[in-house]
Design a protein that fits this description.
The protein is an alpha+beta fold and about 850 residues long. It contains 23 helices and 26 strands. Helix 10 (about 245-265) runs antiparallel to helix 11 (about 270-280) and helix 15 packs across helix 18 (about 570-580). Residues about 825-845 have low confidence and may be disordered.
């Protein structure tokens, strides 16, 4: 009995439903026989079915029009320099967002006349215009022609922002539905603002302000009536009205004059205004860039872009503050004048070094079968130096070669203008030219002459010592030839520029600048597998016991290795790591710069020395603002209240606290800087001594030599430069940091330093300045240091209770100095080499 209950219950429910259905049919049957009732029921059912089908086909899945209340158009990111001036933009769509009130009323009326005269009267859809479009569509079915749109401005906004540009009747109906919904959510001014900021108008310009700049190089507020009318005709098809082509120019004039006539019909301008505007030429300017100098910054701006993408993402899908859509404003410490000086100095240095070595070959190649104009333009290879251009070899015969340029023009390269030897194959460079080669050329009368892009390369960077702000950066000859940034990406052996940090570890572990270290043979047993390793000085030989200072100034390898060995390489590599240079194993060879690092790391480490050992991070961005001006990076950024006051209010002045932690004893850092000042005064970088100002630094030359360096600076700014091949190989036996890198540093930094006061390096609390004999390191009484390049007595910096206890008499100092001068004179009496002669004559660096 229990098992039968469910079936019984189901049977009872079915019986009840049949009973109710039967009763309904019985009540409906008398009416169904009436014809009007049947037709009404069928019509009602058909209407319900039509609504259901309409919703399924058109309305289902449409986006919510309310999302446009929060819509923000993609905007480019703008970078400002150290002076607050915009210098660069990252943009894939040229666009400037304005508010409705920023657009002149006459400009708005021009767009209404050309696109939607009844905009302020309809509720999203112009019914007469819609039926006209339907008729036009039916008449053109099968013709292959595109029917006229008939869309209102509201429908165009719906198409552009919500559903896309699919060409079909279905899209048109969806436009109408969304347009109707939008008119219920947004007011007319909001819809027009979206339209005027979003619409594509050709020349990669999205929005009317960007188009005003692209076509007339004006802001919308400065446009004249005939210019407004031209911009108003572009939404229908910018390619049809290109002023560069005769056909497009003629069409543009005709359509512009039509738009002016429509404005007159609507009573928005007078007859006199229309006649005057129609008499004007188009007045467009040639296509041009975004208004920013594309050459500015180069490697620097690419580094900013990389860091922004790492922080915020690249595309709109990556977040609201993406680089190419977020509309960010970036304040950077980029200094245009210093950047120009760094760029010029590095390029000239590379050209000097490479001079006389022959042609290094083409800078690239293109596929001629795909069309040289298209391929050259798509390569984005260019050059910005002394009027040089990159050209593609189109054809070559015995007398000359035809070359083409990215703007579509062509020229001739005579065989006689390409006779420099090709260093890889021998013979004149002209004989090696092939169709598709991309080469550097310069104007030579009516024709062109071959130029050589140096095969050797390098990187340079300048940084403030108190903040870590990067003022300039150059990562090669030209960023359009190679985006590889040798200032931040190239891992190179630093050579002797690492030595100050080796001695810093020694100073932290009992040594002083006056400590005596033996400059003599040193061999170390490295185990059964590696055997015995013997070290040598760069120039060979040895000098016996010498002070630490002398060893740094003369860059003596044997003294450095001995100091590292006595200190302990584990302590040395810890110091190097703490300064952000690299994480190395405790092998003695790393004390001579065998590890790899970058220009950026070395410059930052030297800046930390000048900053009394306080940690710095290289900054190419001060802060980043979103499109509304809110600072979104760094996260803990705070405005300096009161910093820009016109007058002092009597309250305490704003003070900036230290940012980084202390990574080196400040007294040790100062001792290293004080010793490294001697490198400029009488060491391996005396080429900088004629600047007559407090400077410190260190040269570096690696085995081969494969890389040459100089890093150093003043109390306020530090810069570093290295020169080497991308695939490391010997630069030639004469190449040294003091001969090649230091002159580049000098050329770049001299104009900047001349504008700065001669500020001495300030010693931290606790440092004791003691007069010592420069040769022996012994303390001297009764004698004061002089301004001579190589004085017998100098000031030396000591930590408390570490100054020398033994002293030397004045007459002993004089006798030792005279003996040292005699030894130097004897050492100079030797056979002179070619490199000595070149160095004396100013050098071929």
């Amino acid at each position: 009995m229990e098992e039968a209950r469910p079936d019984t219950a189901r049977s009872s429910l079915a019986d009840r439903l049949r009973g109710h259905g039967g009763a309904f049919r019985e009540r409906l049957a008398p009416h169904w026989d009436r014809r009007w009732f049947r037709w009404a029921a069928i019509a009602l059912g058909g209407l319900f079915l039509a609504i259901l089908l309409f919703w399924l086909i058109f309305a289902r899945g449409l986006p919510d029009a309310a999302t446009l209340l929060e819509y923000e158009p993609p905007l480019p990111t703008i970078v400002r320099d150290i002076n607050g001036q915009p210098v660069h933009s990252y943009a894939r769509e040229r666009r400037v967002q304005l508010q409705y009130s920023d657009y002149p009323p006459l400009l708005i009326r021009a767009y209404l006349a050309a696109e939607d005269k009844t905009f302020f009267d309809h509720h999203g859809v112009d019914i007469p215009g819609f039926f006209g479009a339907v008729f036009d569509y039916v008449t053109k079915i099968g013709s292959g022609q595109r029917a006229k749109g008939g869309s209102t401005i509201t429908q165009q906004v719906a198409k552009n922002l919500l559903i896309g540009d699919e060409y079909s009747p279905t899209r048109k109906v969806k436009e109408m539905i969304l347009a109707y919904r939008m008119e219920g959510v947004l007011n007319k001014q909001q819809i027009l603002e979206l339209y005027l900021n979003q619409i594509f108008l050709g020349r990669n310009a999205y929005g009317v302000q960007a188009a005003a700049r692209a076509y007339f190089d004006k802001d919308v507020a400065d446009l004249k009536l005939h210019e407004m009318a031209y911009l108003a005709i572009l939404p229908k098809g910018p390619a049809n009205y290109r002023p560069e082509s005769p056909t497009g120019h003629e069409r543009a004039l005709e359509r512009r004059n039509w738009a002016l006539g429509e404005m007159l019909k609507n009573g928005w301008i007078t007859q006199a205004q229309r006649d005057e505007a129609q008499a004007q030429p188009l007045g467009t300017v040639p296509p041009h860039g975004s208004g920013f100098d594309a050459r500015a910054g180069g490697y620097y701006m690419e580094e900013v872009r990389r860091r922004l993408i790492q922080q915020f993402g690249e595309k709109a899908d990556d977040g609201p503050n993406s680089v190419y859509a977020g509309g960010l404003w970036v304040r950077s410490p980029y200094d245009p004048k210093l950047q120009e000086g760094v760029t010029t100095a590095l390029r000239n240095g590379l050209l000097r070094f490479d001079a006389g070595k022959g042609w290094s070959g083409p800078v690239g190649k293109i596929d001629m079968a795909r069309g040289w104009k298209r391929e050259l333009a798509a390569s984005y290879i260019g050059i910005d130096y002394a009027g040089w251009r990159i050209g593609a070899v189109i054809d070559r015969n015995s007398t000359g070669a035809e070359i083409g340029f990215s703007d579509g023009s062509a020229g001739t390269l005579p065989a006689g203008a390409a006779q420099m030897p090709y260093r890889r194959a021998g013979g004149p460079a002209f004989n090696s030219l092939k169709a598709g080669d991309l080469i550097a050329v310069a104007r030579n009368g009516a024709s062109w002459a071959l130029r050589n892009v140096p095969e050797v390369s390098g990187g340079m960077m300048a940084e403030q010592t108190h903040s870590g702000r990067v003022l300039a950066m150059q990562g090669g000859f030209d960023s359009r030839l190679s985006s590889y940034n040798r200032a931040t990406q190239a891992m190179r052996q630093p050579g002797s520029t690492i030595k100050p940090f080796v001695y810093a570890a020694a100073l932290d572990n009992g040594m002083t600048p006056a400590s005596i270290i033996v400059d003599g043979p040193l061999c170390v047993y490295q185990g059964a597998g590696l055997g015995q390793k013997c070290f040598r000085n760069f120039t060979g030989g040895s000098a016996g016991p010498q002070t630490m200072r002398w060893g740094v100034e003369q860059s003596r390898n044997l003294m450095t290795v001995r100091a590292a060995s006595q200190t302990g390489m584990d302590r040395v590599v810890r110091t190097i790591k703490a300064m952000g240079i690299g994480d190395y194993q405790p092998y003695l060879s790393f004390a001579l710069g065998a590890g790899e690092t970058t220009v950026e790391r070395m410059v930052n480490a030297y800046a930390m020395l000048a900053n009394h050992g306080r940690q710095l991070s290289p900054k190419v961005m001060d802060y980043v603002q979103d499109r509304r001006g809110k600072v979104i990076w760094p996260l803990r950024w705070r405005a300096c209240d009161g910093c820009n006051m016109a007058n002092w209010d009597g309250k305490p002045m704003p003070r900036f606290g230290f940012e980084g932690r202390q990574v080196m004893n400040p007294m040790t850092a100062y001792q290293v800087v004080h010793i490294a000042e001697g490198v400029i005064q009488r060491g391996t970088a005396t080429i900088l001594s004629d600047l007559k100002r407090p400077l410190f630094g260190k040269t570096g030359t690696t085995n081969g030599p494969t890389n040459v360096w100089f890093v150093g600076g003043s109390p306020d700014i530090v810069a570093g430069v290295y020169i080497g091949y991308d695939q490391p190989r010997s630069l030639g036996g004469w190449a040294q940091g003091g001969r090649v890198a230091a002159p580049i540093w000098k050329a770049a930094m001299t104009p900047v330093l001349e504008q700065m006061p001669k500020t001495p390096f300030v010693a931290p609390a606790g440092i004791r300045m003691v007069t010592i004999d420069r040769r022996s390191g012994k303390r001297v009484y009764g004698v004061w240091p002089t301004d001579e390049p190589k004085p017998a007595v100098i000031w030396e910096a000591f930590k408390p209770e570490t100054e020398p206890r033994r002293s030397i008499r004045k007459e002993e100092v004089v006798a030792q100095e005279q003996a040292a001068q005699r030894r130097e004179a004897r050492a100079q009496v030797r056979q002179r080499t070619d490199s000595d002669f070149l160095q004396d004559q100013g050098g071929i660096y």
